[in-house]
Design brief:
Lipocalin, 181 residues, 9 strands, alpha+beta
Amino acid sequence: MTLRFIRTAALACIALVTGSACTAIPDGMEPVAGFDADRYLGTWYEVARLDHSFERGLYNVTATYARNDDGSISVLNRGYSEEDAEWNSAEGKAKFVSSPDVAHLKVSFFGPFYGSYVVYDLDDEYRTAFVTGYNKKYLWLLSREPNPPASVLERFKSEAAADGYDLSGLIENVQRDDLPR
């Protein structure tokens, strides 16, 4: 996202005793198996997220994924800051942690420091994805469309609560029609 994101993520990982903790999977969560990265490529809209400083104040956030020549995945995160009246973006690279058919990747926006990206729920059509980080303080609902049916958000919240996520900081409806896309 923004430089705030890069600094925050890097400092969080540096502070940990081992770098592998940043690429962990939260207790009780399982990445999607049988994952097809090529179907996942393209643009995803952020529909809901847990609040974090690196995305605070950003709307119309998108994540665009493409295949790199070396087999890794390029990541372009973009969001509009209403306060600054400008777009913020961050470019990164993702690599599979174990196998390309398991939706557990490590993503870097800042040098050698990686954070976990775990797709733990994905519909058969690759239209909606539930994503978490290395612990249950990170959570996103992504969709191929900016404003999916309300039932998608309700299922996301219900399942996330059942999985032990604290949704008190959940930000919904981050795709706004009154701001640039």
